[in-house]
Amino acid sequence: MKNTKSYIADLHVHSRYSRATSKDCSPETLELWARRKGIDIVGTGDFTHPAWREELKEKLIPAENGLYVLKEECRIKDGITDDNRKPRFVVSGEISSIYKKGDRVRKIHNVILLPSLEDAENLSHKLETIGNIHSDGRPILGLDSRDLLEITLEICKDAIFVPAHIWTPHFSLFGAFSGFDRIEDCFEDLTPYIHALETGLSSDPAMNWRLSALDRYQLISNSDAHSPSKLGREANLLDIELSYQGLEGAIQRGKGFCGTIEFFPEEGKYFLDGHRKCNLSLTPAETKKYNGICPVCGRKITIGVLHRVEELADREEGFVLPTAKGFESLVPLPEVIASAMGCAVTSSKVNVQYEKMLRELGAEFSILREIPLEDIRHCVGNFLEEGIHRLRTGQVERTAGYDGEYGVIQVLKKEETNNIYGQVSLFDSMIFSSETAVTEEKEEQQKMDILKEEEKKNLKEETKEALNEEQMAAVCAKEEVISVIAGPGTGKTKTLIERIVYLISECQVNPAQIRAVTFTNKAAQEMRERLEKRLSGKKAIEGIEIGTFHGICYQMLLKSEKEWIVIEDYQANQVIKEIIQRKKLKISAKNLLQEISRYKNRIPFTHYWKEGEWEEIIEEYQKELNRLSFVDFDDLLRLTLEMKQEELPKDEGKYLFVDEFQDMNEIQYELVKKWKEKGKGLFVIGDPDQAIYGFRGSNAKYFLQLKKDFKEVREIRLVKNYRSTKEIIDCALCAIKKENQNILIPFLKEERGEEVTLVTTESELSEGIYIAKQINAMTGGMDMLDIHNSMAKQDRIRDFDEIAVLYRTHQQAKTLEMCLRKESIPCKIVGRDDFLDDKTVQEVISFFRFLLEPRDLISLRIYLQGIEGYTEDVIEQCLKWIKEKINEEWTEDILEQWEEELGIRNEWMGKIRYFYTRVKKESPQELLKEWKEKNGLEGEKAFEKLEGMAVFYKEMKAFLDNLRFGQEGDFERSTEKMYHSSAVSLMTLHAAKGLEFPVVFLCGIKKGTLPLEIANRGVDIEEERRLFYVGITRAKEELILLTSKERSVFLEDLKEENFHKEKGKKKKKKEETQGVQMSLFDLL
C-alpha cells in the first residue's frame, strides 16, 4: 500500500467484547471484511477492554507511525478478496457516559482514537479507577464527557476525541432525550479541543450544514459496526500520508479530509419521529400536533433526528456550506443483491452472488462507486447495472426509518422492471432494506387503524382527565364523615386533593380550616405540591396544615410554653444502655427501646417482664428524658392526646383529612376522634387490603370503628384502577385471594400489556445479576446500534427512574446494590439503613445537631464521649454550663465566654468556630465533605453512605429533621457521590407503599423471605400476603417476580396464565468462557 493515495477509513467499530456484537468480531475477521469492502484504515474498537487489548498486542504488529497491520500468519486468505491489500488498524474505542448535568440525565457516547496500544493501556488504567471497564467493550461510566475529554488529553495529548453519532435520540451529544443544545454546554472550557463530529446513520452532512455552530468541525462518518459484514456502512475519504499523524491532521484540521460515504439518512432507523410498536411514523410537524404523545397508545413519541435538527437549525433546508466537503450516499452491496433476488441478506444465494462480484469485479466500494457499469452488466446483468447507476446518481425513492425501524430505499418500481425486461421480471422490485417492504395496501390499512385508535385514545384521555362517578361522589359528598375505601391505582391521592380543592374553591372554606394527615414526610410534600399546582401557587395554600401525625403533634407541642426536643434513636440508645447496666438487664438496648415503643403505642410486649420490673424501667427512662428536657418519638402523640382541649390550637370548624387510614393504630385513632370533636368534617381514605403495619399496632378495623363512633358515615369505594395493566391486576387479585374480581377493575382492560414474568434463580447473587442485566437492556446500556433488539420486547428505552427493585428486608439490598454498582447503574436506596447505627455516623450527626440546637445535651454528650474522648467530669461541666448559658444560637461572645470560664481551648472549639457560621449556609453534602477531610474519614463506608443520603438535601436542618421524624419511605441514599435525578430505586416493600413505577422487579419471593420467617416469632401470614399485594400493585407496565427453587407459598395462588416463566442464567463451564467477554454476569 503506497503512502500517496486516497484511502477509505472506518474508525468506529466494535469487538466481540462489546454487548450485542457478533462473536466473529476478531482481528482476523475484521481485517478480512475490510479487504472485502475496500477499507484501508479500520479502527480496532474497544481498546478499554483488557482481554481485547491483549489479543490486539498478540495479533497486530506496528506498520506506519501509529498504525498497525495484522500478522501474516493470522490473515484469512479466502481466494475471493485481494490478498495483496493490507488494511491498517488504528487504536480506537467508544465510551458511554451517563451522568447528571443541568438538571437532566445525560447519556453521551464518545469515540477516542489513540496513537498506540501503550497509550490505550495508560488511559484504560486511569478509567479503571473511575468505573467498571471490564464487563463491556464499550464501558458505561458515570463520568461527565467534559471530564472524560480532560482525562484523555492528560494521558495522551495526541488523542483524537470525537462525539459519536451526535443525533441519535438516546445516546448522543444532541440526542433528543438526553443530549445538549450546544457543544459548549457539554464540553465547557474544553470545547476548543473538539475538532470533529460523527454524524451517525440517520443524518448526512447536508442536514448538519443547517447549524452554523457546526461549521468549524470536520463531519466524519463511520459504521459503528457490531459485526464484520457491517463495516463500511459509512466511512471517510482521506487523501493523507498513511500514518496516525496523517489521520490526525485530516480529522482534527481537515488536512486531506475529502468527504464521506453515507447511508441515505432516511434509511437510518431514527430519521423521523414515531412509535414503532404502533406502526406510526410522524414528521416533526405531526409530532408537535400530538404534543409529543403517540395518538395510539398514549406513550411518548420517540423524537427522530430530523426533528432534532430542525429544533436547533438556524438555516433553511437545502443550504449548502460553500467550504464543505462532498459526500456520497450508498447502500451495502449485499442488500442490493438480496432485495433484487427476493432473499434474506444472510441467504446462501446472496452470498454466492456477492462473492462472484468480489472475485470478478473487485472490492465492494469499487463496485458501488467506480467500476464501469458495462463491466457490472457483463458480470450480473442489466438489472443490477441499472440499480447501481441510479444509486450513483441519487435517483431513489425513500421511505424513512423511525423509532429503531430501518428505512426503505426503493430504486426500481415494478413497472420499471417490466420496461427493462419487456416482461414481468423475476425481480418484482428493487428495495434496499433488511426488512420486507410494506405494501401500499397495508400502509393504507395501518393509517385507517391509527385514525380509529386515535379517536379511541382521545375519548379515553377525556374520560381520564375528569373524575369518575365514584371519585366525584367522594369529592362532593355532603355528609360530615366520609370513609373512602380505595384500591391501589384508583386515584386515592387525586380524590383527596380534589376534595380539599372543592371545599376551598366551591364551598369557600378558609385554607386555615384544613388539616391533612399523611404517614410520611414525602407524601406530605407531594400533597403540598399538588395543592399548590391545583390552587395556583403557595400563597393559596399557606394556611393548610399538612404533615404526619408526629409532625403535626410536634408543632402543637411547640406552641405550648414548655420547651421540647425530640430524642433520636441513637440518643435514646445512649440513655437506655445506662439503664440496662444499672439494672443488669439481659436485653439489648435496641430490643428494650422497641418494648418501650410498644408500650407507648398500646401494643402487647414480646418480652416477659417480672412483676413490677417494667414499671421501674419505664419510670427511670422517662425521668432521664425529663432531666435532659427530651421527649421521644412516641411521646409526641401521647402528650398531644393528654393536652386539655383549651391547650390545643383552635380546632373549631376544622376539616380533617387522613390518608392511608388502614395504617391507623389505637392512639392515632384517638387523636383523630379528639381533633374531630370541634371540627366540621372528617374525610378518611385508604385500603384495608394494604394494611401492612400490624407490627406497630396498625389495624384496618378502624374503618368499621368509624361507623360505631359517628352517627352519619358515608362509605364510598373506588375500584377503577388507572395504574396497572390487566395482566398485573389479574396477578394481584390472585395474590390477595379475592374471589370478588370487582374490587379492582383495570380502566383500560381492553389494552393488552406485557405478561408478568416469573424468574427462577439459584441464589441472591444470581438474582441481583439477572436484575442488573435486565436493567442494562431496558435502559439501552447494552448497545446503541442494536438497541432495537431489546426495544422489540421493551417497546421503548427506559429511564433509570422508571424502574424499582423491591425486597422484603434490608439485608437483600446489599447484594442488589453491589450488582447494580458493578454495572455502573445509578441507583438510590430508599428506607432506613443499618449504617445510621454506626458510631462514627452518630457522632458526626450529634455534632451538627448540637450546632443547630445548642440545648441538645445528649448530642453534646455523645460527641464529647466519642470523638473528643472527654472524661465524665469534663462532660458534666460542659453540660451544666450549656444548660445555664446558652439559649437558642451560638454567638462569638458565647464561644469566648466558654473558653474563658471552662478553660477549653482545643481542637474541638476550633471545629465549632469553623462550622457554626456555615452550618445554616452550606449544603449537608459540602459540610460532610469538609468534615471527612478534616477528620481523616476517607474510605469509611458508613460515613460515605451518610454522604450519599445528604446529597438529597440543600440544608443541614432539613436533613437532620428527616433523620429525626422520617418514616421508612422518607430515607433516601444515593449510591454515588452526586445526586442523580434518574436512578433506579431500591426499596423495601414497606417503603414502596404509595408509590408507582412503570417497571417493578419484586425480589426474594421464596420460602423464609416472603412471608418473612424469624426464629421464635410468629408469622402474620395475611399481613405478609397484603405486603406481597402492595409490591405487585406498584407496577404500571412491567412486573418481574423473582423466586428460587424453594418458592413462596404465595406463588401457589397465582394461576399459570398469570405469567410466563424464565430461568436465570446458569454458570458456564470454564472451557466455555475462554476467549469471550467476561463480566459480572459470568459470576453465575
Summarize the structure.
The chain is of the alpha/beta class and 1084 residues long.
Uncertain parts: 421-445, 450-465, 782-794, 1066-1084
Please provide the count of β strands: 36
Our estimate of the beta-strand percent is: 15-25%
Helix percent reads 40-55%
How far from one another are the termini?
47 Å
Mean pLDDT: 82
Any idea what the shape is? elongated
What features would you describe in this structure?
By secondary structure, the protein is α/β, with parallel strands linked by helices. The protein is built from 41 helices and 36 strands. Helix 10 crosses helix 11 and helix 11 (348-361) packs across helix 13. The longest helix has 26 residues, at 440-465. It is elongated, with a radius of gyration of 34 Å.
